[in-house]
Input
Amino acid sequence: MKKAKVIMLAPDLNVQGGISSVVQEYLKANLDQKVDLIFLPTHQDGSAGKKISIFLKALARFLRLTPQMRTTIVHLHTSQNGSFVRKFILFFIARVAGARTIVHIHGSKFDGFMKRNRLLRFLTKYYFDHADRILVTFPFWKNILADYTNNKNIFVFYNPISLSAEPYQVNGTLNILFLGRLGQRKGVYDLLTCISQNKEYFARKGARFILAGDGEVSQVRQFVRDHQLEGFVEVPGWILGDAKEAYWKSSDLLILPSYHEQMPMSILEAMAHGYPIIATNVAGIPEMVKHCENGYLFAPGDIRAMTFYLRQLCDHSALREKMGQKSQELVREKFANTKIVDQLVSMYEDF
Output
């Protein structure tokens, strides 16, 4: 069978964020060998001038590809704000050129974004109504879009992850990892309040919290100093590569007390490494974290519940190990990158 021809539009693979992680997992599972893939990065971190330059280069290359688009699938990974603007421009060009289009929604606040004003309501509705396929990361989003567009071709595609080769093992230390953008949306200040209120307990347990990510790094470090949490909390900033893997190997569980999400890659990474998870019951998180099976779920802002579940897992190493094993089992069943890529290739070939 002839390979499907695909142009994939997404941020550069080095951009900090979930979409880049998703595309990296596609490539780890050899998507580029299973289809005729052109990956066009439309965004990079940096100054406004650099971001504009990267997009204009992507736009120029995309325009040069228009003569072959009648036999091409254009797969657009889309979030809110600037990501939507960039992808809408490219989507419109693809439609005029006769390409088949897949709109893949990722943004944690896209539902609020598309209803922000009359112009955005019009543009997002046009975007969804005219896409050949719409991909969402969890079933609740399918219900949202079903009320917003007449397009019936909406499919749930879970974010992919590669399973760690090493099973979870109880460490001699007790390291609790937070991984994501530091700020109120991810609930990091709720977590810091929890730590501050329970300093004696965490000192007795020898617990250490690693709050790794970009965003409000200096503000979080200041909170740590102001509340004398230096002995409990490390704030390394954004971590990548070997440094990130080292934190995974030395940690015991992941906590993510977010207020808004889609399907966080940090939770999938933790599950793939065989960790129990403590997280809020928002968006796609309950698709990944099964309460009392591979972790615990609580309502955003409920510091009391967060504290209770942290103590449960800090007190019981056997429970951490059991839940971590369940996490890896769920990855194999639902989220393995090879499984997701096979589903994606089948979709491409069914066009």
